[in-house]
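Input:
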Amino acid sequence: MTRRARASKRPGTGGSRPVQVVTVMAAVAALLGACASGGEPTAASVPPAASSVPSATTPEAGITPPPLVVSAPPARLDLGRTSTTAPVALAAVDADGSLDVPDDVSELGWWVGSAPMGATAGTTLIAGHIDSAEQGLGVFSDLRDAAPGDQVTVVDGLGVAYGFRVSGVQEVVKEDLPAELFTSTGPRRLALVTCSGPFDESLRRYRDNLIVWAEPG
Amino acid sequence: MTVRRLLGAVAASGLITGAALLSTGGIATASTSSDAVTLSASGTGANEVPAGSGEAGASVTGSFQLTPAGAMTYTIKITGNAEPVTAGHIHRGAAGVNGDVVVPFDAVPINGGTSATVQVDPAIAAEIIANPAGFYLNTHSASFAPPSGNARAQLATSSGAPGSIDTGTGGQAAQDSDAAAWVGAGGAVLLAVGAVAVVRRRREAAGV
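Output:
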């Protein structure tokens, strides 16, 4: 059975609470019903046709415009299985060494040191919140449903869409993130990252990262 | 104003280069050839020179794809700024040193949170690719007009990999997993109880 846990965002609980089984069963039944009635994957949306194709500007006269750059950061991600769509912003590394993922759990962050769209090699790293104490479940809570073969579409900042297929799902302790996640060489890959595993109430932190790997296709 | 969303408005902006691609075959595969080098920049108002001239609380992050021929895609996100951006530039200058503008950016895509393209003098492009640390990005607004700026960041060919990716402070997802386990266990109990009841009824019906 496919696990479906995403519902509308709900407020954070601020800590674990005993769960009443009856309540939970009712909620799960409602979610299963929702899946049965509307859980079919839909075709990934694509941006509308442009009215014009932008060209590189020429601030200095006399320069012949070179071919348009065919590379740009990700701007939007579509998860085909769950019809989840989310904007993707630039994400640098904070002074404490952590990735500066957007605070808004409905947004995703592309690590600026990773491969942009249009690259022919390396990993494009997009991370997003699974949840937040203040905002409830995040858009990447849907990653828990990802399975090999799922279609993923990334639209870059210039409007070009790139198709990927999920090739694997990996769960690792945060301190043991694989080197393949941060490489700009080697096979062309997309890595979608969120949190997973046990939650430490005192640190307000999950133990693991969930990595969904996808390849062009 | 704080510009938070980077690219939500791409479709509305009309800055779509993939129109022909999409209309003829749908989605491209991620194997498009490109000789562009990706540069990034990340800094704050505290990095402006002289010290104290930047906007307190402002941060700027940029990503640039630049070919040796000078074709550049730029994407700039600024947060913590109080006013709309009026201009953005790449200047020549190492950390702590101000210098002339070498690449001007359009303020519209910066405020709109979109990517855009610009032609760079190939000679300048070659210099930037060879020594990105010798150049910096900054943005300006009405109160932070040149030579001051909202925030400043030196260019780099690669940023250090993040040491951690922390994307959850709520614990709800873990509770969902726990709940699913409880439901699974509860369902098994209910099935067992139901099976016993069926067997009992059949035995009663059979007069056993």
